[in-house]
Amino acid sequence: MKKASVILFLLLALTLCIIFALLSGSQRIPLSEILFSDKWDDIIFSIRLPRVVNAISVGGLLSLAGLLIQNLVKNPLADPYILGISGASASAQLAIIAAGVVLPFWLFVTIGFVAALLSLGLLLLLSSKRTLNTQNLLLSGVVIAFAYGAIISMILTLSPSASTKSMLFWLMGDLSYSSALIYPLVILVSGSIWVYAYNRELDLLARGEFFALKSGVNVQKINLIILLSTSVFTAVAVSMSGTIGFVGLVVPHLARLLVGNVHALLIPLSALIGAIVLLLADTLARTVVAPVQLPVGVFTAFFGVPVFIYLLRKRT
Amino acid sequence: MIEIQGLSLKMDEQLLLSNFSLRIEKGQFWAILGKNGAGKTTLLHTLAGLQAYSQGSITIDRFELKSLEYLSRAQLVSLLPQVQESSLDCSVQQAVSYGRYAWHKNTTPNLEIITQALGDMELTSLAKKSIMALSGGELRKVELATILAQDSDVMLLDEPLNHLDLAFRYKLMQILKELSQKKAIIMVTHDIQYVQQYCSHIIMFCGESKVFSGKIKDVLTEKNLTKMLGTELPKSLLKNT
Hints:
By secondary structure, chain A is mainly alpha-helical. Chain A is 77% helix and 0% strand. In chain A, α4 crosses α5 (105-127). The longest helix of chain A is centred in the N-terminal third of the chain and has 33 residues, at 41-73. The two termini of chain A are 31 Å apart. The mean pLDDT of chain A is 88. Chain B is built from nine helices and ten strands. Chain B has helices spanning 40-47, 70-76, 92-97, 111-120, 136-150, 166-179, 192-198, 216-219, 222-229, and strands spanning 2-11, 14-24, 29-34, 55-60, 63-64, 77-80, 154-158, 184-188, 201-205, 211-215. In chain B, β4 (55-60) and β5 form a beta hairpin. The model of chain B has no long low-confidence stretch (mean pLDDT 91).
C-alpha cells in the first residue's frame, strides 16, 4: 500500500509540474485566465504543450534506459550513453547542422534515430560472436563512444562559427526544437509496459547473470531484450533532444533508494521521476534568464552532480 | 534420480572425465573430492545443466538434461556456486525469495518456505538488511538459504562450508543430512572429516581423468587418498571407523 501511494504521489506531482510548466515562460499566464478565456490557447497548445510532452517523454525514456543499462552491465555508474548509441545520433545530427541544411524536424529526428540503430548493429557485430557477452559489449561500447567523441570534436572545429552555438546547445541537450511529435510518448508508455512484463527476470539479473541462469532465467533472451529496449529508448530520446546528461544516471538511483531492487516498482517510478525531473529542469532552463533560453542539460547537470555525489558518499 | 552414462568432460583440451557412468538416487548424500583443478566444479556445473558436454548423456528424473526448459531445470536442480558474482543491492529477504523464481514465475512466492529458509540459516534478524552490509559468512548463508528456498530434488553445492564458522558448519551438515533423506545432495569439499561423518557416497578425482566412485567405506580408503593427493601425508587424515 505504501508503495502504491508513492506512485500516486508522483502522478500528482507530475500533474502539478505540467500545469506549472504550461503557465511559466517569458510570458507568464495567470491560472485564473486560462480557465475562463481562450486568449492564451495559442501559446499554451502550440508552443508550450509540445515542449512539455517532449520533456516528459525524453525524461522518462532516458531514466528507463538508465535503469536497464545499469542492470545489464551490473555497474551503477553506467548511463544510457555508455554504449555510444547517443554519439552516433549526435554525430549525424551535428553534421546536418554544420552543413547548414535545414530539414523538417521529423526528418532530422529520423536521421538521428537511424544513425543510433546502425551504431547498435555495429556494436553487436564487434562485441558478440554468437552469444551476447555483456563485458565485451561494455568495452566495445566505450571505445565506440570515444570514436564518436572524436568525430563530434572534428565537426565542431571545422564548422562555421555561426552554427557553433546551436551545435553546443544540441550537445548539452536541448528541447527547444520540439514540435508536436507524439510518438516518443507512445514509445515511453508502450515501452514501459513491454519492459514491465520482465520485471521478475530483471530482479534476478540484478543479483548476477550466473545467478539468474541457475535460478531458471533465460539470460541470453532477457539480456537481448534489455539491450534492444534500452537502445531504442536512448535513440528516441537523443534524436529528439540531443544528449541530456545525468537524468539516465541519477534517476534510477533515486528510484532504487525509494523502493529497493523491485523492478515491478522501479520501472514505473523511474519513468515518472525522470519525466518530472526533466520537465522541471526544462521549465527552469527557459524561464530563469528569460527571454534567453539555456540548454536544459545545464540544469540537469547542475542538480544531477550534487545529488549524485551525495548518493555516492552515502554508498561508501 | 540422476543417471550419468559415458560422460566425457574436457576443459581447454585437458580431459577431466572420460566415459564416466554413475547413478545417484534420492536419499544419498554425495561428496566430490579431488585436487585443485581436477574438474570437481566442472562436473557440478555440468550436472546443473550450465555447462555443455559433448559426449555421453545425463538424465535427471528420466528427463534428458540438455532438453530441459530453463524453468523445469531450475525446479529439478539447484546449484550453490563457489563464489557469488558481483550483484546490485537488495535486501536479504529479497535475495532469498529469488530462489522461488522457478516455481512462482508470475505469482507471489510462497512466504512460508522463505521464512523457513531464513530461520534455518539464522538470518531472520537480518531479513530486512541490505546484502551489501553483510560479512562474507553471512553472505554465504544468504546464498545457502536461497538454495534451500529453491527446494529442488537435486542440490549441487560447491564448497558450501567456505566462510562459515565452525559451529555453523556442523549445523549446516546436520541440515543437509536430514534433507538428503528425500533429496539427492552432491557437494564439493576438501574437509574429509565432514565427508566421513555425514556423507553416504563419494566421487574421487585421482588425476589423469581417473575417477573412483561409490560408498564411502569402499572408496574413501588410505590407498585412494594417497593416489588422489599424489603424496603420502605424514599423519593419516582418516578416522578409523
